[in-house]
UniProtKB/TrEMBL annotation:
Ranges for domain Sugar phosphate transporter: 18-304
Origin superkingdom: Eukaryota
UniProt keyword list: Membrane, Transmembrane, Transmembrane helix
Subcellular location: Membrane
Membrane-spanning intervals of the chain: 12-33, 45-70, 82-100, 106-128, 140-157, 163-187, 199-218, 233-253, 260-281, 287-306
Annotated protein name in UniProt: Sugar phosphate transporter domain-containing protein
Record Pfam families: TPT
Protein's membrane topology: Multi-pass membrane protein
InterPro entries for this protein: Sugar_P_trans_dom, TPT_transporter
Organism, as annotated: Sphagnum troendelagicum
PANTHER family in UniProt: SOLUTE CARRIER FAMILY 35
Amino acid sequence: MGRGEAAAVYKKILVSYAYVAIWIFLSFTVIVFNKYILDRKMYNWPFPISLTMIHMGFCSFIAFFLVRVFKIVEPLNMTRELFMSSVVPIGALYSLSLWLSNSAYIYLSVSFIQMLKALMPVAVYSTGVMLKKDSFDSKTMTNMVGISVGVAIAAYGEAKFNVFGVLLQLGAVVVEAIRLVMIQILLTSKGITLNPISTLYYVAPCCFVFLSIPWALVEYPVLQATSTFQVDFVVFGLNSLAAFALNLAVFLLVGKTSALTMNVAGVVKDWLLIAFSWSVIMDRVTPINLMGYGVAFIGVCFYNHAKLQALKAKEAQKQLQSSAVDEEVGLLEKKLERLEETTTIPLPPQKNNSGS
C-alpha cells in the first residue's frame, strides 16, 4: 500500500470516527436535555406529549423550508395511496414510540432507561420473525434470551424501580421495533429510501397530528388549569434544534458508515450515559445494575458481531458471484475469438470481364 492509499484509508477512518462522535454527542445531548425538561426535580415540565409535539412541529417547519423553499432535497413522487398505506402507519408508530419513551424519563433514571433499551435487538428480531421478515435461528434466539436475562437482572437491582415507568419504556421499545420492521416492509421493499429531511417532511406532520389527539384529551386540560401553557423559547428552541440535528447525524452516520456502526456506537453511548447519570445527575447505580447490564452488553456485542459476520459473508458471496460472471464472460469472449479465427468467410465469385 502506497503512501497515498494509506493516507486515504486513514482519512476515511478519521471521518467515520468523526461521524460517530457527532452522533454520540447529539444523542447524548437530546436524552439528557429531555430528562432535564421532563423530570419533576429539574425543569419540572412533565408533559411528554407536548414536548414531542414541539419537536415534531419544529422539524416539520424546518423540513418544509428545506424541501419546498430552499429545495435542498427534492420531494419524492409520493402518491396518496403510498402515503396512506406506508407513511401514515409509520408516523403513527413513531409518534407512539416517542410519546412512551419521553414519558419514561419522568419515572425512571437515565441509566436504567439505557439498560432497558438493550432489549431493542430482542424486540426487533422477535418482531421480524413474527412478521416473517427474518428467519428463526436457535443461536440468535439463545443470544436474545441472554440479553433479556441481563436486563432482568439489572431491573432486579434497580434502586428506584417504578413499574409504570418500566412498562412505558418497554412499550416504547416494542413499538419502535415494530416501526423499524414496518419501514423495511412498507418502504424498503418498494424501493423507497428516505433521508432524514425527507423523513421529517413526510412523517413529522403525521406525528404531530396523531399526537394532537391524546394531547387534547390528556395534557391540554392540565396545562390550561395550571396556567403553565407558555413555551420557554430558549429552552424548547434549543431542545428542538438538538432533536433536528440528531436526525441529520443519524443520516450521516448510517449513510457514510453503516447501521451496524450505529449499533456499536449506541453501546458506547449507553455506557457514557450510565456514567454521566451516576456521576453528574447523581442517580444511584447498584452493583447488580451493572452486573445485569454487563450480561446484556455481552449479548449485544455477540449480536453485533454475528451481524458483522453475516454482512461479510453476504459481501463475499456477491464478490464470488461477480467473479464467476466475469469468468464466464471471459470464456465466452475467448470462444468467440477462436470462432472468428477458424471460420473463413467465402468470397463472392469474381466476375470474368474478358471476352470469350
